[in-house]
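Standup notes
- DV: blocked on the single-chain target, sequence here:
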Amino acid sequence: MARFKVQCGQYGNNDTLKLKLFGTSLSAAAFSWYSRLKPGSIVDWPTMERLFRETYGTIEPEVGLDSLTQMSQQSMESGVSFLQRFKIQQAKCDFLLPEQEAIKLVVRGLEHRQRLKHHGERFTSMGDLINKVIIISLSSMKWMRRRMPPRGRTYQGETRQWGH
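- DV (later): unblocked, structure below
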């Protein structure tokens, strides 16, 4: 269920669309169960989600707001990886978190230096935030590459590789 919600991405708030797309995300026994449902018997997304959970149980624990507010970027984790991890956890929530609130939680959870780079920015959507984090990550990588010394040692105008 959480994976499906993440796959829905920006359309995740559209229950009608989720209801139409849900069957395409299933396979094996879950798809067989879905295909045996009487056409028109499920009229809305909450009913479909409830029936699916009743049939297959909740494999993944529900995530509460307290868990999301405590999430933070790990020391060796990229900003993009943190955003992906947050989105997966958000999809496990049993409530709908408004996008602007989710953005605030993500920004608050970013590593300090990363957060400073976004200080004062206004993000129109989670996609906008992701794009800006990617841009900063790419520019940081380019800056680091320029500062790295050349590989090997230079002797009188020639470069020798280590071990040669």
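- Follow-up: The chain has nine helices and two strands.
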